[in-house]
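Weekly puzzle thread! Below is a chain. First person to post its structure in token form gets bragging rights.
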Amino acid sequence: MDAAQQETTARARELQRSWYGEPLGALFRRLIDDLGLNQARLAAVLGLSAPMLSQLMSGQRAKIGNPAVVQRVQALQELSSLVADGSVSAVEATDRMEEIKKSQGGSVLTGTSQTTSSSGAPTVRRVVREIQSLLRSVSAAGDIIDAADSLAPSHPELAEFLRVYGAGRTADAVAHYESHQS
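Winning reply:
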């Protein structure tokens, strides 16, 4: 890739960060990991062609042009959070993905919190998931627990943070986050 292509890709990823909260490659990889999908299946659920998904992930293309696809991405993000915190089983997630795939937009996940508040600010769950994703991209849960154990005698608060966000359930991390925001 030449310098001009690298610059174009970097610009596309920066636009994605401003529009979607993060580059789509990172977002889609998290959905693939959390929901046990491959790229072809993710593309099918979202209603994109596999090449289009690949272009969005690589930064060759910046924007998702179809608003219904954006809403499906948001629905999958919420579903991913529910799977991660254990409130939705893998079987139920598969059924919900079929509902999302068929949706023309709008929320198909009734009774769940939205990814952002009405002001457009990220919800606590979204912030927590970003923290978890960052920690888990750096190290495996077992290594995070080992690090927490070595920090515990001298820095118990940091050890708790690592355990809760690095290896714990999303619901527990949300409770921890909310208890420390006063």
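Puzzle host: Confirmed. Bonus trivia for everyone else. Confidence is low (pLDDT under 50) at residues 106-121.
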